[in-house]
Specification:
475 residues; mainly beta; 31 strands
């Protein structure tokens, strides 16, 4: 008998194989890899899943770790199926995917320059996504897919991106918000203080800070249509992707590189970047992690470290979070969203106002007139921090609606309610480096002015490939 004959008793000739009347995500098909010159079995769920991928959390539990549901193979392959990772994006929104192993190369080969000559250094998606959330008697669900999720109200999110280094800088010559890794004085970060250029706390190749978002919004638009600064939907959908990827509401959970029995990721990306010796003193709360940190790690997930000059001493800044190449996006610099407005109410809640259409128009932060009320935060008898137990995700704008969590339960992030009964506030998200456990992907501080400027308020360039509405549709 020829050595090429398969003697496995479970093997059948094609003519003997029955025709499946239906398939599920675990159905396997035969594939051929020409590079390895071999055949193998492939789960249908890794090619074109019949199910969405998602996670559910028990309503009677505060445990942040949830249960993966839907297509487990699709969760396993989220990065590839959704095209997540680093990109170089041109002003006209054309983009080229960067290598998974180093962002100094393109996925197709060849050197990638992050200095602005080839576009903005961004992180994001490669396909249109659909998102839905719902609940039943027992669970709360979140789900994502590349097609509408049947029977649910779907939010359609076009291809998007945000600053891959976490935050961006300003082209001081042309007044543009840019995601470049460039040490030229034209792109000086911080508050553009040239006197620091030769000192340890130089702001060359650092994110821009201490400038109000309403001032920076026109700088983002100077790149072209659909360029934004600290765009709320971009922030929100990043957090959703993380929650499903890790099946965990606690994005600050410790890094855990061990896969589950189903081959899924778990844990989180850690508590956030270490502080320099005296951030409040020697650094005056200005950025201390350069924009080139971690670029050689590609689409890495976990945490990493970088050495800095800390007032004449070499300091290792560890625990910098990285999610599929997105770096330092929480618990480093805070970010006031350009298109969310909070208003103090008589019951000491903060009402939350947005515009549904994401089309590049400038959101007016001077009044609520003309904006859409989507909900209210939970009230506070007095000003202070509360841990978030539950959020509302209506119109893709996270709003804390119930307290009662902690740093290890619920959403594990905090909300600061100023307990004011009037006045407009900005939605200050993500938290800053000495914010402790309060910081995170659903963190909200309601005590900042919409135009607030601080040494530790950063600006992140964001973009969408096309305009869209945050009104959901039943599909």
């Amino acid at each position: 008998m020829s050595g090429n004959v398969n003697t496995n008793p479970t093997f059948k000739e094609v003519k003997d194989v029955e025709l499946f009347q239906s398939v599920n995500d675990n159905t396997r098909i035969l594939g051929y890899d020409p590079t390895a010159n071999k055949y193998g079995l492939i789960s249908v769920g890794k090619i074109n899943s019949t199910q969405w991928c998602g996670c559910r959390w028990r309503k009677d539990s505060l445990t942040p770790e949830g249960e993966p549901v839907g297509s487990l193979p699709k969760i396993e392959q989220m990065a590839d199926l959704f095209g997540l990772g680093g990109y170089l994006v041109q002003n006209d929104h054309t983009r080229r995917k960067l290598s998974k192993t180093t962002h100094l190369q393109f996925a197709t080969g060849g050197a990638a320059a992050l200095d602005g000559s080839m576009g903005h250094y961004q992180w994001g998606s490669g396909v249109t996504l659909y998102y839905a959330f719902w609940e039943d008697e027992t669970y709360e669900y979140e789900a994502l897919d590349v097609k509408p999720i049947p029977g649910q109200l779907n939010y359609r999110i076009p291809v998007f991106s945000r600053a891959c280094a976490g935050f961006s800088t300003i082209d001081r010559t042309n007044l543009k918000l840019v995601s470049y890794v460039n040490s030229a004085a034209q792109y000086r970060g911080g508050n553009n203080n040239s006197e620091l250029d030769e000192l340890f706390n130089s702001q060359l190749m650092m994110p821009a800070t201490n400038i109000g978002v309403p001032t920076v919004v026109p700088y983002a638009r100077n790149n072209g249509e659909l360029w934004f600064c600290n765009e709320r939907v971009v922030f929100a959908i990043t957090a959703v992707i993380k929650r499903i990827y890790f099946h965990n509401r606690n994005i600050q959970a410790a890094v855990n590189n061990t896969l589950t029995a189903d081959g899924l990721h778990q844990g989180g990306t850690g508590q956030g970047a270490d502080l320099p010796t005296s951030w409040s003193g020697a650094w005056s709360y200005y950025p201390y992690v350069p924009l080139n940190a971690g670029v050689t790690l590609g689409d890495f997930t976990g945490s990493f470290s970088v050495e800095i000059n800390d007032n004449g001493t070499t300091k290792n800044i560890a625990n910098i979070p990285c999610f599929l190449g997105l770096k330092n996006d929480y618990k480093y610099l805070g970010a006031i969203e350009e298109d969310t407005l909070l208003k103090g109410e008589s019951d000491k809640t903060l009402s939350m106002w947005i515009d549904n259409n994401i089309d590049g128009h400038v959101f007016d932060v001077s009044k609520t007139d003309g904006h859409v009320l989507i909900g209210k935060t939970f009230p506070a008898a007095s000003a202070g921090w509360k841990s978030i137990k539950k959020i509302q995700m209506d119109n893709l704008c996270p709003c804390p609606v119930e307290e009662g969590g902690s740093t290890s339960t619920g959403f594990c992030d905090s909300y600061y309610n100023p307990a004011t009964t009037s006045g407009l506030r900005g939605a200050y998200r993500l938290g800053h480096a000495n914010g402790g456990d309060a910081a995170g992907s659903v963190f909200l501080n309601g005590d900042a002015a919409p135009s607030g400027a601080s040494a530790y308020f950063g600006v992140a360039l964001c973009e969408f490939k096309e305009p869209f509405s945050t009104e959901p549709a039943l599909m």
